[in-house]
Amino acid sequence: MIRRVPAQRQSPDRKTVLFGKTICRLVAVAPWAWPLIASSVGRFFDRAADGWDERTDAGSAEHLATLASGLDALGLKPERVLDLGCGTGAGTLFLSREFPQASIRGVDLSDSMIEKARAKIGLDPEGRVSFRTGDASKLPFGDDSFDLVTQVNMPVFFRQITRVLRPGGGLILASSLGDRTPFSTPEKLVRRRLGSLGFDPIHSGSAGDGTWIAARLKETR
Ligand SMILES: C[S@@+](CC[C@H](N)C(=O)[O-])C[C@H]1O[C@@H](n2cnc3c(N)ncnc32)[C@H](O)[C@@H]1O
Question: Could you identify the atom of ligand 1 that is nearest to the CA of residue 58?
Fold first, then answer.
């Protein structure tokens, strides 16, 4: 079930938008610089975890609309799904409901976000859904581990995504406030990088206030 949209969603302030966009651009064009800022970004989100869902409407229909549209465009039935920068787990748990047979992993840099996400896991005797702290720049998974990688409002670590995604697998990059999303990367830059890494076709669209990009990794690299 997707939560109803509350009447008030706090818009990110200009400083946060500038901060997030600068980090996303840096990660996209100079990923080697990420270790210099990773711990500050982690601390920023540790501090932001309390009250995150209430402030950002994470888990609302509006917040998840982009992820849902990206899924429609790909039309996959994945068995292994990875949600990067899962935050408090709203997108990850949505994916677990969409794909009731799949195993779903949520990874986030922030321990505090992961703690909140874990608290939301209901009855799951088979351990189908799990959350762990981790850095998307050095993912603790083997090559070709996933059929689908998703992320909502998160910098893109292109090489790691390409490594853990199996050939033919799908990727969804969602920005729940479109161009106003603080942690978002310009579509032109994303398309260029995905094209050079062997993703084809690349789709994009909008849903609610947000935008999404969805792509398939070619069967042969
Ligand atoms: C803007 S929040 C979005 C959270 C969640 N996806 C949502 O939409 O509510 C970005 C999240 O990405 C996480 N993050 C940032 N850089 C990361 C990295 N390198 N690896 C894993 N998580 C990261 C942050 O800790 C934060 O929880």
Answer: 9
Instruction: Report yes or no on 2 lying in a domain.
Output: no
Other residues' Cβ atoms within 10 Å of the Cβ of residue 208: 18
Angle CA 152–154–155, to nearest 5: 145
**What letter represents residue 211's amino acid?**
T
199 lies in some domain: yes
**Closest ligand 1 atom to Cα of 181:** 1
In this structure, is the dihedral angle defined by the CA atoms of residues 49, 17, 107 and 138, taken in order, positive or negative? negative
Q: What count of other Cβ atoms lies within 10 Å of the Cβ of residue 198? A: 15
Choose the residue to mutate in 25, 45, 115 for probing ligand 1, maximizing ligand atoms within 8 Å of C-beta. 45
The candidate with the shortest Cα–Cα distance to 71, out of 186, 203, 172, 192, is: 172
Has this prediction a pTM greater than 0.85?
yes
The domain that holds 175 is classified in CATH as 3.40.50.150
32 assigned to some structural domain: yes
Q: How many domains does the chain have?
A: 1
**Domain presence at residue 35:** yes
Using one digit for the tens of pLDDT, what is the confidence trace for 119-147? Answer: 999 878 788 999 999 999 999 999 999 99
Concatenated DSSP letters of 102-140? SEEEEEES-HHHHHHHHTT--S-TT--EEEEE--TTS-S
